[in-house]
Write the structure tokens for this entry.
Amino acid sequence: MSDTILIIGACGQIGTELTLKLRGIFGNTTVIASDIREGNTELMESGPFEILDATNKDKIIEVIEKYHVTEVYLMAAMLSVTAEKHPQKAWDLNMNSLLHILDLAKEGLIKKVFWPSSIAVFGTTTPQNNTPQETIMEPTTVYGISKLAGERWCAYYKNKYNVDVRSIRYPGIISWKTNPGGGTTDYAVEIYHKAITDNFYNCFLAENTRLPMMYMDDAIKATIDIMQTDLPDNFFSYNIAAINFTPKEITIAIQKHLPNFKIEYSPDFRQEIADSWPQSINDVKAREDWNWKHSFDLEKMTDVMLENLKEKYNS
Ligand code: SER
């Protein structure tokens, strides 16, 4: 029997595009989308959808049994900014959802799991430039703590119960289809929207704050690739890198298309979160182990973002 995929958190920024891509590859009815709310029309009309709370284990089991699901991509999570506002809720969502899925895999109900980690696992004591795969990890945000704990749980279930769980540490993800929500790296999406609608952006990070980032297509490719390859036993969650830039550098890239675009900087509490994260990531292990390679640089990403957002706002 062929594999059936369940995406939990399918209506979020990454979930939406991941679902559409997987449906394109494996067929619409093979990929079940689920979330606590409905998603955009393209997602809702392209295949099966279930309302699903990622912390409700009974309902997860019900959906898995209904569709004979074999693989789960657990994309539901509370991101860094929202998690600082609701620490307990963030911990409950980010941890319980993962433990439910790992338990179901341990019990043999599903065969394979994808769980996203983040650059937020690193903290102020981590080397900030070219951050290695294995290094000091003392995250200072609730989100980062939950992601680091999650990585350790994944490794535990893998080693102890032979659960096939795969993971990557996403940098900030930039896309135009579905908005991100509640992240520190979200400025790099907002800035493109505001460039088109207002010709002006008031940035919540300081001009020279460098963060690791990636265009959505590269992130989706990494996610799908890591689920298809044979991985060495000793892996944990892979660092993956593409580009890194500052608010000032992305502004310059936008101004090449929109010369009148202006930016101001009003750093707020999110600055402290950004300052605790790496500026650039060393992903040589992912490149060696499963041939990870990005293809979008800042210029190419800016072309695609502006072109698609212009069209979106015009229609
Ligand atoms: N994009 C996330 C955030 O900013 C980091 O993984 O919270």
